[in-house]
Dihydroxyacetone kinase subunit L (Kribbella antibiotica), 208 residues
Amino acid sequence: MSKEVESFTDWLRDSAQVLHDNAAYLTELDSAIGDADHGANMDRGFGAVVAVLDETSFDTVDELLKKAGMTLVSKVGGASGPLYGTFFLRFGTALAGVKLTPAAIGEGLRAGVGGILARGKAEIGDKTMYDAWGPALDAYDTAVAGGGDLAAALTAAAEASAKGRDATVPLEARKGRASYLGERSVGHQDPGATSTTLLLESAARTLA
Ligand code: ADP
Ligand code: MG
Ligand code: MG
C-alpha cells in the first residue's frame, strides 16, 4: 500500500472511530432540530466504510475515496448519506491521476463540497454542514497560498470549521429537516456542521 493510500485509510478509520464515539452526541443535537438519527446515520455509514477497508485493498487514493463515497450513499439514508457520499465521490474523482500536493488536495476538497452544494443547494447561513465546509475551504486555501504545508492547511481548515459550526447556533435553519421548525431551530447547533468538523479534525490528525 502506498504511503498516501495508507494515510487516507487512516483518516477514514479514525473518522469512523470518532463518529462512533460521538454518535450519541450527534443524535442528541439532531433530536433538538431534526429526527434524532444523525449519529446513528454517520456511525452506520462509516462502519460500512471500515468493513470495506477490511476486505479490499486499494492501489490509489481516488479509488479509495470513491468507494467510501459509494458506500455512504448506499448505506446511509436521509440527507447526510447522499451529501457526504457525493463529497467523497467527487473528492476522489478530482484526485484521479493527480499528484497529491496540498494545493491539489485543496482543489479536491472544493470539488467534493461542490457536490454537497449541487445536491443540497445550501448557502452560507442556512444552518447546514456547508456553514462548516465553506470557511474550512477558504482557510485551507489561505494557508496553502501563504506557503503552509498539508498539516498547516488542514489544521486551519479544522479550526475554521469549528468556528462555522459554532456560528450555526443562533441561525434559523433554511435547509433540511431543521427548516421545518422555522424560528424554533434558533439556539441549537447544527448536527451536520458538527460531524463535518469531526471529519476535518480527524484529517488534520491523520493526513498530515
Ligand atoms: P436527515 O435530516 O435526513 O435525518 P441527518 O440527520 O443524517 O439526515 O443529517 C442532517 C444534517 O444534514 C443537517 O444537520 C445538515 O447539516 C445537513 N443537511 C440537511 N439538508 C442539507 C442541505 N440541503 N445542504 C447541506 N446540508 C444539509
Ligand atoms: Mg436526522
Ligand atoms: Mg433522518
User: Anything to note?
Assistant: The chain is about 70% helix and 0% strand.
